[in-house]
């Protein structure tokens, strides 16, 4: 039986990449998740104790996380938990939860982000098969078409990430939201 958890929180460290040029790069970062709730009596927000996790990403996911996630970013992580025990030089011991990530992304509750497909050569993605535990599940998304619709054409690879994506002038906006948010933009 394989358990999967989803954790929302903030990246507590800058992602660190190990072996970026190998067939199986690994990126790790710390994830802090602090529960918050509103008091029914006072209406004030209260924060609970922060839970800390080490997130480990493998293969293509490792490189994408290293390029996309920064210290302090709100993120959502889906993966398999594993409890790791440790003992330091002072003979103190403890345990931590490491999440072997299957998916990592920005938490869009707190802001926006722009997806950019990355092509990193012809090497096969080893992120699933190389993760601890030898997962051999197939990525359904990899089987779907990667061609964007005309209204969602990404900027050229040479464009900076902050370049807004625009609907080509010859293509009318297909929804009221697109009409409102693409008004006055022209194709690059």
UniProtKB/TrEMBL annotation:
Matches recorded under SUPFAM superfamilies: Nucleic acid-binding proteins
Annotated segments matching region Disordered: 1-25, 118-188
One MF annotation (Gene Ontology) recorded for this entry: single-stranded DNA binding
GO biological-process terms attached to the record: DNA replication
TM region(s), chain numbering: none
Keyword annotations of the record: DNA-binding
Pfam families membership: SSB
Superkingdom in the source lineage: Bacteria
Biased composition (Low complexity): 159-176
The keyword DNA-binding is annotated on this UniProt entry: yes
GO cellular component, one term: nucleoid
PANTHER family reported in the protein's UniProt record: SINGLE-STRANDED DNA-BINDING PROTEIN
Name by which UniProt lists this protein: Single-stranded DNA-binding protein
Lineage, opening ranks: Bacteria, Bacillati, Actinomycetota, Actinomycetes, Micrococcales
Gene name linked to the record: ssb
């Amino acid at each position: 039986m394989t358990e999967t958890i989803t954790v929302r929180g903030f990246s507590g460290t800058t992602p660190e990449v190990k072996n970026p040029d190998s067939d199986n790069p690994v990126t790790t970062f710390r994830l802090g998740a602090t529960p918050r709730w509103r008091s029914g009596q006072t209406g004030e927000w209260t924060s609970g104790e922060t839970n800390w996790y080490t997130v480990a990403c493998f293969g293509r996911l490792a490189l994408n996380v290293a390029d996309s996630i920064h210290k302090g970013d709100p993120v959502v992580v889906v993966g398999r938990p594993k409890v790791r025990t440790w003992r330091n030089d002072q003979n103190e011991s403890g345990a931590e939860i490491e999440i072997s990530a299957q998916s990592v992304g920005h938490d869009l509750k707190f802001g926006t982000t722009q997806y950019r497909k990355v092509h990193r050569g012809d090497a096969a993605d080893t992120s699933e098969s190389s993760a601890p535990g030898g997962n051999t599940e197939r990525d359904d998304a990899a089987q779907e078409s990667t061609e964007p619709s005309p209204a969602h054409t990404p900027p050229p690879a040479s464009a900076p990430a902050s370049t807004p994506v625009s609907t080509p002038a010859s293509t009318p906006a297909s929804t009221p939201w697109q009409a409102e948010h693409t008004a006055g933009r022209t194709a690059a």
